[in-house]
Amino acid sequence: KYNAGIVGLGTYVPERILTNIELESSLETSDEWILSRTGIKERRIAAPEQAASDLALAAASAALENARVSASEVDLIICATLTPDMFFPATGCIVQDRLGAKKAAAFDLEAGCSGFIYGLSVAQAFIASGIYKTVLVIGTDVMSRIVNWRDRGTCVLFGDGAGAVVLKPVEQDQGILSVHLGADGSGAGTLLVPAGGSRMPLSQEVLDLNLQFIQMSGGDVFKFAVIAMCNATKHVLAGVGLETEDLGMLVPHQANTRIIESAAKRLKLPMDKVVVTVDRYGNNSTASVPLALKEAVDDGRIKNGQNVVLVGFGAGLTWGAVLIRW
Ligand code: ACO
């Protein structure tokens, strides 16, 4: 029996930087408000011609190169996104074709901002069972397309980006040691895009009411997020008999610095063991965890042999964590 180990990482963020100061000219907001409530200074915004698959392709190509794995070796592509190019076909299939990953199966996974963590756990299951040897997990989101740029309560929070990892079988004391996933659909109404699906197809009336954009009950999501991230982190550590003291680095979903700090405080984890990138990218949904992970690997904060927990929460409501022996 094997575990899935991350053997390559790649990320992509669009070039365009949108600062808080710039937002001040189009919204009744301020750099001070956004920074003090969220920790966000700026975010990246996709060019008009860029869709989720374009960001994903760039991140996936970089991850394959980093892993020294050719596209033809990939058995499965799991593309986590809540902003797919279109309803169908799956964005994962578009990426499969553009990568030239001819033998790979491909599908999209929608678990809100927890999608990348859900994707890693699916990859772990396929690799541990021996069904597949090389799995590409991508998180890609163009949140700028689904926020109402006139709603200051949501639009300042999000950004665009993509991250990808290549997973292969590794020995049992390495790679993904434990996973924990959860969902509570009773909270579906706290974070959603109401229209555009089969429940409420797009119509002029719907567009006039701006129901094609994100709606969020910020305070409820905040409280849920802190508890969900703490519990999920404790769960994956306890799964292999570890405690918070054994944790080398925590890589949380990047929604808001205050959420991350509150979760770290509850876990009694010092902030130097927590990766934060939300200041520069905002919340780019499924891309946030791989972006933060790559940054901490590249700058040497994550080292071989360390216990690393990736943890997320999102619409659904969903949450999840994976413990990786790096
Ligand atoms: N600029 C200035 N003022 C603002 C802004 C803004 N951008 N946005 C809201 N305000 C105002 C509000 O209108 C309100 O004014 P009022 O008191 O006159 O009514 C005031 O600021 C306070 O608003 P609150 O919502 O109470 O502010 P809070 O401190 O709760 O912060 C925030 C709001 C940042 C949204 C916070 O609740 C939060 O981060 N929640 C979690 C959000 C999140 O993580 N979402 C992503 C989930 S992941 C996924 O799956 C997509």
TrEMBL record:
Residues in coiled coil: none
Keyword Transmembrane in annotation: yes
UniProt keyword Translocase present: no
GO biological process: fatty acid biosynthetic process
Pfam families, alphabetized: ACP_syn_III (PF08545), ACP_syn_III_C (PF08541)
GO cellular component, one term: cytoplasm
Active-site residues, as the UniProt record annotates them: C113, H253, N283
Span list, region ACP-binding: 254-258
Listed InterPro entries: ACP_syn_III_C, ACP_syn_III_N, FabH, Thiolase-like
Superkingdom as given in the UniProt entry: Bacteria
One Gene Ontology MF term: 3-oxoacyl-[acyl-carrier-protein] synthase activity
Pathway field: Lipid metabolism; fatty acid biosynthesis
Subcellular location: Cytoplasm
TM annotation in the entry: 308-326
Family per similarity comment: Belongs to the thiolase-like superfamily. FabH family.
Functional note: Catalyzes the condensation reaction of fatty acid synthesis by the addition to an acyl acceptor of two carbons from malonyl-ACP. Catalyzes the first condensation reaction which initiates fatty acid synthesis and may therefore play a role in governing the total rate of fatty acid production. Possesses both acetoacetyl-ACP synthase and acetyl transacylase activities. Its substrate specificity determines the biosynthesis of branched-chain and/or straight-chain of fatty acids.
Entry domain remark: The last Arg residue of the ACP-binding site is essential for the weak association between ACP/AcpP and FabH.
Subunit structure: Homodimer.
Protein name: Beta-ketoacyl-[acyl-carrier-protein] synthase III
